[in-house]
Amino acid sequence: MSERADLDAVAEALAALPPHWYGWTDELHDLYERFLEEPELPLSPELRPRFEHRGRRQRLSSATYEAWWRLGRRAEDGGLRSAAERAEAVELAERCVRAGFLAHEAVSFLHRLGRPDGEAALQRLVRDASVLPYDRAWAREWLIRLRHPDYDARAREPVEGEEPLLPQVVRDLPAAAHGGVAWPETESRETVDLLRRVLEALLPAERLDRQEPPADWTYDDEGEEVDYSDRPEWFDVELVRRGLMPHPRLVTRERIAELRSECAWLGLDVNAADFAERQLTRIRALYAGAALERTGRLEYEWNACLTPWAMDLAARYVERDAAAEDAVSMLTYMDDVPYTREVLARLAADASLRPELRSRIEPSH
């Protein structure tokens, strides 16, 4: 089909699109599936038109899906050269996202269209409160991907003249090929000493007012996957931060300010007065968690060198709610050491810990 035909197909589908209805429950989904198999199923006067509208939306979606796929492929191949056609395609894509109709396909098209038109449209969508939270999060993720080359370029720029915010021992950690930290794989006294110095340098002076880093949002306490619309904003802030500052030496006051500016541009709420302080606390906890994880992977013969300082440091991280989950994991992994079991027993009896954290601590006997 031609570009013109695909654009017309999307426009016609939008013109015929029934309104979207919110408030679906598992029971209503099950009833709707029965309705598809039994169209004469007795339904209330309120439910029947809603089910019929949903069925029509699904049929329109099936008929229009490939139009967006072809338009996206043409955009990547240099098609849509006419400014008028590009503008029309962008407008249709935004309308689809706002209507909750083939929103993922429309976002994908805008991402493939790229700069400047696709990027500008995605920015409008992520800042539009009328867009469904699920679709807004999806648009923001692809907008961040579109801007990642800019983040990579900034990360390659030198930090001379900027104010570093992390301890020297952390800034001096070797860089990995992907830009993060290359934790030593060789097990030696030097590795043990390095891990100790890093953990001592990153330990907060007192208990944090909330856990850092935040709890994993992708799964609930029962292990069930969380709805994408519940994706917290801090997750997207962290995506941007890792792009701009993939290594500790890049964590400077100036780049934290750039992070805040970029996140505001992405429609994220970064108005809190303590944004910079909170980000630095989170970054420190993330690197501390990585150091705790590496310490826990040391072979058994190093336990004598780790006792008691590593266990005591891990306990302080738990008590101060910084990288606490990683600290508990490290202690649990090393519970064959008698002193570790003493530390775990003490933490398990500490009623001041978060209940969900305390429940993870199982003292060995």
List the helices and strands and how they pair.
Elements: H1 3-15, H2 26-37, H3 47-76, H4 83-98, H5 103-113, H6 117-126, H7 133-155, H8 168-171, H9 189-202, H10 233-244, H11 253-265, H12 275-296, H13 303-306, H14 309-319, H15 324-333, H16 338-348, H17 355-358
How would you describe this protein?
With 365 residues, the protein is mainly α. 60% of the residues lie in helices and 0% in strands. It is built from 17 helices and no strands. The protein has helices spanning 3-15, 26-37, 47-76, 83-98, 103-113, 117-126, 133-155, 168-171, 189-202, 233-244, 253-265, 275-296, 303-306, 309-319, 324-333, 338-348, 355-358. Helix 1 runs antiparallel to helix 3 (47-76). The model has no long low-confidence stretch (mean pLDDT 92).
Mean pLDDT: 92
End-to-end CA span: 71 Å
Query: If you compute it from the alpha carbons, what radius of gyration comes out, rounded to the nearest whole angstrom?
Result: 26 Å
Q: Uncertain spans, ≥5 residues at pLDDT below 50?
A: none
Residue share in helix: 55-70%
Described by strand count, sense and barrel closure, the largest sheet is: none
What's the assembly state of these chains? single chain
- N-to-C SSE series? HHHHHHHHHHHHHHHHH
Strands, count = 0
The fraction of residues in strands falls at under 5%
Number of helices: 17
Q: Can you tell me the overall shape? A: globular
Summing up helix and strand content along with how strands pair, one would put the structural category as mainly alpha
